[in-house]
Amino acid sequence: MAEKIGRNDPCWCGSGRKYKACHQSFDEKIERFKDQGCIVPPRNIIKTPEDIAGIKESAKINVAVLDYVGENIRPGMSTEEIDRMVYEKTTEMGGIPAPLNYQGFPKSVCTSINDEVCHGIPAADIILQEGDIVNVDVSTILNGYFSDSSRMYMIGTVSEEKRRLVEVTKECVQKGLEAVKPWGFLGDMGQAVHDHAFANGYTIVREIGGHGIGKEFHEEPWVGYNSVAGTEMLLVPGMVFTIEPMVNMGKPEIYIDDVNDWTVYTQDGLPSAQWEIQVLVTEDGAEVISW
Predict the structure, then answer these.
(1) Quick one: which of 65, 68, 53 has its CA closest to 94?
(2) 3-state SS, residue 136
(3) Share of the chain above pLDDT 90, in %
(4) Which strand (E) or helix (H) includes residue 118?
(5) C-alpha dihedral over 184, 185, 191, 193, to 10 degrees?
(6) Which of 157, 173, 225, 231 is nearest to 194 (CA)?
(7) DSSP secondary structure string, 81-99?
(8) What secondary structure letter does DSSP report for 45?
């Protein structure tokens, strides 16, 4: 935890209230969990009311962009067209596409089709075909605040196998959300996601997961979905992170494209699906900020 604050000093959260009347009991509760050997969140990832308001404004753009993609996506469209839609809609609303030039990523959005697990790079020669499933992963910066969510789109008429994968993956996210409780653990969410995927005959990618987000694109904690209830980081009000399991129809093994060094594929060539939501831990549960 951060350096101690005097009881009568202004609270670290920026409320203007004295520490003893604001976050002192909150911090002491976290310390008690730490003393029991629990992994606790550092103060710098606990969002203030000002931070939360800023993240929510960013998320309004993120949601609107995904809505716009959903209204226009169709067979015969190139993923380059999706990228252009995302860039134009994001900037029109005053935001910045977070993926663009992030660690060298060349586009404004990730478009991952069928056996592409994540980080698919849009291109003019990648054309959406009838029967494809595609994940469109949008991330937005507005006034220094980050939002992030993704959706699956089924192109035209898809096979029952692919449809079921997409639907069960969305159910996994919902199961995870229901397990997010203040003073619970990140592993509670991870096991809920894992159990639902495996009960339906699917596996979950192990090496790639969700992440904290808000003031940076990727913050602590790393969020996995093969975890055990009662383990991982303590969940406290003010934490913001993504729930985004990558659910495979076949085996969990993956590989990364050795040419572009970004796109992740299933090793067995079977389809993968992913939905992503951005979640705020509240005093009585969780709030979905971006979806």
Answers:
(1) 65
(2) strand
(3) 97
(4) strand 116-118
(5) 80
(6) 225
(7) HHHHHHHHHHHHTT-EETT
(8) G
Query: Residue 100 CB: number of other CB atoms within 10 A?
Result: 17
pLDDT over 80 (residue 280): yes
Helices (H) and strands (E) in the chain, counts: 5, 15
Beta bridge partners of 223: 210
Alpha carbon distances (Å) from 13 to 16, 144, 195, 213, 237? 8, 18, 37, 17, 12
Q: Name the band, by pLDDT with cuts 50, 70 and 90, for residue 4.
A: confident
- The helix or strand, by DSSP H or E, that contains position 199, with its residue range, turns out to be helix 186-199
Count of alpha carbons within 13 Å of 274, Cβ hemisphere only?
Answer: 35
Q: Closest Cα partner for 57 from 95, 28, 85?
A: 95
Q: Is the pLDDT of residue 1 over 60?
A: no
Which pLDDT tens digit goes with each residue over 97-113? Answer: 999 999 999 999 999 99
Alpha carbon distance 258, 38 (integer Å)? 39
Q: How far is CA 104 from the centre of its chain?
A: 20
**What residues form DSSP beta bridges with 135?**
112, 152
Strand partners, 110: 137
CB 165 within 8 A of CB 235: no
Q: Using DSSP, state whether 68 is helix, strand or coil.
A: helix
Residues counted in the chain? 291
Q: Rounded distance, CA 113 to CA 269, Å?
A: 11
- The pLDDT mean for the chain works out to 97
